[in-house]
Amino acid sequence: MKVIHSTSSSSPPSLHVIYINTKLETKAYAHELVPTITCTSSNLVQTILQAFAQVPDLNIWYGPDSYMGANIKELFQQMAKMTDEEIAEIHPEHSGDSIRSLLPPLHFFQYVTCIVHHLFGHEVVEKIKEMHCDAFLIAHLEVPGEMFSSAMEAKRRGMGVVDSTQNILDFIKERLQEALDRNVNDHLQFVLGTESGMVTSIVAAVGGLLGSAANSSGAAKVSVEIVFPVSSDSISRTSSSLSPVKVEMSYFLWYLE
To answer: Does residue 232 sit in helix, strand or coil?
Structure first.
């Protein structure tokens, strides 16, 4: 990645980092103002770290989602508390000092949120704490701060992940494969703080692993419960008896075994 300096000699260089799902018009307007890089949730952290490594006095402006911007800022604040060795494993050109120095010039837009991830607010977090305190907690980088903080705390305990959609899927598959390898009866529960569109790929991956294990003689029984919690005002209920989804309160549940 090459970072282009601002042409103005009177101000520090600036860079827009724009989320890939942003409208083309927004990306074009951003690039008209200052050099712009498009990122995904999986490469956002590395993009910002690489930019600051190449241009230490850089100002970075992330947008448009304020949840992801605030969460990235919080992630770097936590990263600043890590040892230099731990930081170097994430990016070899950074240390505690450099991470602390990049915090002030890292800015994010504070007035736009993703309508999908906005569903995971205070009500959802409180219900998760009450009903699913022992579950694996999964969160995308675009969820509101309370869900992000809860998932980060779960991650520190080895019971969660905060990452991109692909890394979320990998985390679930790895936890399930570990349970299958232990070959003892077990029940895993995953609470998803991400878009509902991911459920299809997650259920397919989990079902595939469980199906393969079921064909092995002497295999222990492992079941998986996938919980997709959203705020109560976002649910459209149906009385259809043909629905494959069980709805309890504000929760969608998938139970696989």
So the answer is: helix
Residues 6+ apart with CB under 8 A from 157: none
Beta bridge partners of residue 36, listed in sequence order? 16
Digit-coded pLDDT (tens) for 62-116:
988 787 888 889 889 989 999 999 999 999 999 999 999 999 999 988 775 554 4
- CA–CA separation, 95 and 92 (whole Å): 8
| Single-letter amino acid code for the residue at 218 | G
- Helical segments of 132-197, H only: 145-156, 165-182
Helices (H) and strands (E) in the chain, counts: 9, 10
What is the Cα–Cα distance from 147 to 113, expressed in whole angstroms? Answer: 14
DSSP string, 29-40: HHHHHS-EEEE-
Both tokens of residue 77? Answer: 């604040």
pTM for the full model?
0.61
